[in-house]
Amino acid sequence: MLIRLFIVLGPAYILSQFLRNSIAVLGPELSVSLDVGSAGLGTMTGAFFLGFAAMQLPVGMALDRFGPRRVMASFMIIVALGCAVFAMADDLFMLMAGRVLMGVGCAPLLMGAMVIFARAFEPDRFASLTSLQLAIGNSGILLATSPFALLIEQTGWRISLFGAAALACGFVILMLLALPESLRGRSLSSGRSEGLIQSLQGVGQILADRRLWPLMPLLFCGYGSVVSITALWGGPYLADIYGLQAVDRGNVLLLMASGSVIGPLCFGPLDRRFNSRKWIVVPGCGMVMAIFMLLAFWGRPPLWLLPGLFFLISAGTGYFSVAVAHARSLYSYETIGRGMTVSNMLVMGGVGILQPLSGLVARWFQGDMAPLDQMAALPENAYRAVFGFLGACLLLSLLSYLRAPDSKPFKPQEPPDPAFRPEHRDG
């Protein structure tokens, strides 16, 4: 059954990551065919996250009430619609609409998988299963680079997006056929029928839970800091400071993206091995923070060393799957869906806010500032400031996280979960 789940859940999340990161390759094509400038490309990139973040709370309520199968299949229809709208676009407004719909449709794809893992498997397996889902899905980042560029060369960008729409439609059918309503004797919905007011009150209770507060800064900054490099600053930094051309920049960033696949696989099983989540997260986050600070002070390390540092940033962020497992341990069985989506709302909010804030930091250190609608090379001091800003965010997040009590996967003194039925365990 686990293999069957990942055959459906993994590729669906690959599509989400692919669409999320596709603008980097689509940008030049859109600039030529539809005269979209740099400001428009930046707005389109943010439009996906806007739609994604706006749906997190409704998705959490829906996952709790209706279960992942129906919610994920329904939202895949919106993904297909968004890809089709984008493929047919002839102006920036339609492109934006397509991106927003893509973000809305992709909103439950990771959270739905996490709800299945949380409700159908033992709590100590959550980090490992989530890490595997992240590693599989993050391969979509790789597909959104050179392979996507080659596909566009062969078919054109519109046909490519129509192909993504068709793939999303296929996932609708696959999810309805292959995803169960219950698994291992446990319903994948909470079984509770709540109105909107009651659901919102439940979200408010999660946000008011003081146990979550020390984790909030880390959820907000942990993923957003590395995405600020992979999706925003990595390419310009390699071009402005090292003078690398597009292919060479792509090779470095491809190596960095591979770290996002390897990292979760390495960090995910460690909480079960050491029976600790906090003390897996702390050294992982500390390593990433230290590399950001090193880049801030060094500014321009030797080019032979830089790809390794970028790779370690990306791979080291594999600790984040364990941090998510720590957050999951705070939620009751009935509130897992909305609890995980509150966490994901913090994560995606961090992505959406850290990038423009780092842009303001870079602009402050730019010196003679270019107009906002023009691209200009940044000096080394600007990039050092960006790295320092991201490192400082992680440092403050880590200091907050250190206040949280540890979350242990194995608690022998604790009575078994009454909702779990051992007679239905696999194998």
TrEMBL record:
GO terms for molecular function: transmembrane transporter activity. GO terms for cellular component: plasma membrane. The keyword Membrane applies. Keywords: Cell membrane, Membrane, Transmembrane, Transmembrane helix. The chain crosses the membrane at residues 36-59, 71-89, 101-120, 132-152, 158-179, 215-238, 250-267, 279-298, 304-325, 346-365, 385-402. This is MFS transporter. InterPro entries: MFS, MFS_dom, MFS_Efflux_Transporters, MFS_trans_sf. It is found in: Cell membrane. Residues 408-427 are annotated as: Disordered. SUPFAM superfamilies: MFS general substrate transporter. Its main location: membrane. Residues 5-408 form the Major facilitator superfamily (MFS) profile domain. The keyword Cell membrane applies.
